[in-house]
Please model this.
Amino acid sequence: GESVGLHLPTLSVQEGDNSIINCAYSNSASDYFIWYKQESGKGPQFIIDIRSNMDKRQGQRVTVLLNKTVKHLSLQIAATQPGDSAVYFCAENEGGNQFYFGTGTSLTVIP
Amino acid sequence: ETGVTQTPRHLVMGMTNKKSLKCEQHLGHNAMYWYKQSAKKPLELMFVYNFKEQTENNSVPSRFSPECPNSSHLFLHLHTLQPEDSALYLCASSQDAVSAYEQYFGPGTRLTVT
Model:
């Protein structure tokens, strides 16, 4: 079966520092990945995605890195702000509508 | 109103009750999804509808019954639920359910079964 996991369940960072959240996946056929942010009391919010023909993609203050060799995905948040405090989880897809989600990493930003 | 909306936001029901969750998307998408989110567990896909046709039922118990009257609306009918069904139920939509596109989620319905 699929396995999408996160290395650390919780992460605390100082405001202004960079944050790195990691995700491991086991299906080598997965070719599309998404990072979601879920704040308390809200549904998951799309942050950034990447397809397997890329190894890096940048958005506003966020960068996703994909290492297909070791089946590892990471989300980097630059200059972390208190509003970034949330649960972040990755999702993988090998085509079609079936996404497999990780359990999430809780990010806490310390002012 | 934009995005994906869900009602009610909170629901408490007894095991003998019948209730329905409603989802509406204003994004012009053709695929809609129901997910179950339990504490400390990954999102579990329950049902998928593509152009109003159900294309996925992930071994969901029959006490959960989905309905998709059109591409913009999705319902989840609940009856004789169990306490372990208490969870956050999330609706999502995407452009379609054939290609892999990002899914947009609603805020969820927090369901408590007593």
Remarks:
- The mean pLDDT of chain A is 90.
- The longest strand of chain A covers residues 86-93.
- Chain A is about 0% helix and 55% strand.
